[in-house]
Design a protein that fits this description.
The chain is of the alpha+beta class. The protein has three domains: about 60 residues, Nuclear Transport Factor 2, Chain: A (Roll), CATH 3.10.450; about 70 residues, Nuclear Transport Factor 2, Chain: A, CATH 3.10.450.40; about 60 residues, Nuclear Transport Factor 2, Chain: A (Roll). About 25% of the residues lie in helices and about 45% in strands. It contains four helices and twelve strands. The strands form two sheets. An eight-stranded antiparallel β-sheet has the order 1-2-3-4-8-7-6-5, covered by helices on one side. A four-stranded antiparallel β-sheet has the order 9-10-11-12, with helices on one face. A hairpin with a 5-residue loop joins strand 3 and strand 4. The chain is globular, with a radius of gyration of 24 Å.
């Protein structure tokens, strides 16, 4: 009887030890330790794509691997966190879209973006020119992710799609002006306008900003304000159709 108890205890100890040792090994297996591992992960994410470039960099003090791939007409950019192998940025661009004659409206662009990213909220829509063509840039949020979509105004084709894990304003040690100050700056720019939304974005093309959306009369206003200096970086007025 005693011998059976010893065997049971020994077996139990071995099972417990194995489970304890397996967890760290599984965690280690998820890490990315070199460029080849980053390539392999990216190829799994975008099947049958060709890897053209791999770089390592530091984002917010953490090592990341940036992988660029091509598949068909699209160029893909993926960013992985080295410590856990997590995909923190994913995007593609397609600049081979055929030229169309008809123009899409801002409201049509909104509908397209909401269909593309279900249940996401739209932060702002701005307009600019890229390669000689008018483009709508749509910034959206869903959970911890920030989405950026770009639509060609002529034809309405989606030419760029990207999501990234959004950083929190409170997670940074940097001193920012805060939502209230950003709101005040925007209202001074457009006196009498009603503020609809103020959002913090820790990485808008590498800069921490506040994005302010306002309405006055028949117009919508979108402002991008530097999170530290309070300088207005972008200002857009659009007829509310």
């Amino acid at each position: 009887m005693r011998r059976k108890m010893i065997l049971c205890l020994t077996a139990g100890f071995l099972i417990f030890s194995a489970s304890v040792l397996t967890a760290p090994r599984q965690a280690d297996a998820a890490k990315i330790g070199n460029i080849n591992q980053a390539k392999a992960k990216a190829r799994q994410q975008v099947k049958n794509a060709t890897v053209t470039e791999v770089d390592s960099d530091f984002e917010n003090g953490k090592l990341v691997y940036e992988v660029q791939l091509y598949k068909g007409k699209k160029e893909y950019d993926l960013v992985y966190q080295a410590s856990n192998g997590k995909l923190i940025e994913y995007g593609w661009e397609d600049h081979t879209v055929k030229v169309a004659k008809h123009l899409i409206t801002k409201s049509t662009c909104k509908k397209c973006a909401k269909q593309k990213v279900k249940n996401a909220s739209i932060d702002r829509i701005t307009q600019h020119y890229e390669d000689g063509f008018g483009v709508y840039k749509v910034v959206m949020r869903k959970g911890a992710k920030k989405y950026t979509l770009e639509y060609r105004k002529t034809g309405g084709a989606l030419i760029e799609y990207k999501w990234e894990i959004a950083a929190s304003e409170t997670s940074s040690k940097n001193k920012y002006i805060g939502h209230a100050k950003a709101k005040s700056i925007a209202q001074k720019k457009v006196p009498g306008a009603s503020v609809v939304k103020v959002e913090f974005d820790a990485d808008d093309d590498g800069i921490a900003v506040y994005e302010v959306e306002m309405i006055k009369g028949n117009y919508e206003y979108d402002l991008t304000i530097h999170a530290k200096s309070g300088k207005i970086l972008e200002y857009d007025r659009d007829f509310n159709d």
